[in-house]
Amino acid sequence: MRCQLAQAIDRSKRRLSVPVSGRFEKEANQANTVTPQPNNTSFLPSSSGEYLPLSPLVVLTLGSSFSARLRHDGLRPPSTTEGAHPPSRCQEKISLQCPRAFRTALDHVCWIRRFFCAGTRNWRTNPFRTSSPVADIYLPCESNFSGGILTFSSQPSIYDPPPTETLLLDTPSALEAHIGTVRRATTGKYREAHAHVQGVVSRWIGVENRVEHRVKSLLPPDERLVPGVLYAAVAFLSGAIVARHRILPIRALLPPVLGTAALVHFNPRLSANIRAYAGALEDEHLPAVAQFHETGKAHALMGWERVREGTENARGKVSRGVLEAVEKVQGATGLRIREALGVARDIEEKVERVIEEKVADLEGVADTVEKKAEEAAKERVV
């Protein structure tokens, strides 16, 4: 059956390829000038916008299927006997050279062409017409006919289709916007407070480092703190105990005076470093007070020197008075009171010290004279 149908199609192709005459030839030429297409073929649209050729067997198959579909839907394509539509020009051309069965199929195809090309009532005004006398059919698919088998070129690929990217737009609500604003404000305040606390901690650490460095600089490396510091603390507490029943100025001044005196006596270098550091701070921050203290120190030194001089003078006067009294008693009684008191021994010791000093001075002078004599002799020899 397939072979017979193929032979009939070949014969139809040869018959349809016979040139026509008269106005049909003119219309065919006009069609060729508008959209030049290969003869004896119909075309199907592809996905790229091009139209693929359709063989007459596909035309018959599609015509039969669409006729069956129309009959199922309650519609019926026009037949050649009813004459619902006037025969088209292609039908007139085909009726001269085609058998009855093929003409009936072409009638159905022509009706299908009118169904798909709605609004195009004239074959000459159809922009998708072809030069083939077979009716023009355009279907939204790609097809191919080879060996009597209808195949579709839009077959699924062996590879998976590329994944499609889905863009999701996150639209926050009003509540989320308010929560975000509050969270950002809270976070900002927390960061400011954290930075302030960190600054305070950093400054405190700096103060600790400076104090440690200053204490290390005040401590003398060759002087022990213990037991001098303990003695100073004991003196301070003793002053507080002694002055607890005294008047307020004495209770306020006696403990630090005793503690400072003990520290100066037992740790002289440490006390000197503390005085120097206190003086530097006073000069830097309280220059007027520092000047007043310097004046007070000068007056105190002057007073101390005067006290020392007065004490030495009084001591000398007392010593001389005692010696005179001893000499008077010794002359009157004949007793050796001076030897008993050790006065003569002191005098002898003083005399010996004076003699030793004089001898040392003489030796030094002799050495100097000898050196000068040697130098003079060398100069003469030269």
Automatic annotation (TrEMBL):
Coiled-coil region(s): 337-379
Mitochondrion among keywords: yes
Subcellular location as annotated: Mitochondrion inner membrane
Polar residues composition bias: residue spans: 29-42
Acyltransferase is among the record's keywords: no
Main location: mitochondrion
Any Gene Ontology CC annotation: mitochondrial crista junction
Disordered, as annotated region: 17-42
GO biological process, one term: cristae formation
Keyword vocabulary terms for this entry: Coiled coil, Membrane, Mitochondrion, Mitochondrion inner membrane
Subunit comment: Component of the mitochondrial contact site and cristae organizing system (MICOS) complex.
Function, as annotated: Component of the MICOS complex, a large protein complex of the mitochondrial inner membrane that plays crucial roles in the maintenance of crista junctions, inner membrane architecture, and formation of contact sites to the outer membrane.
Protein name per the record: MICOS complex subunit
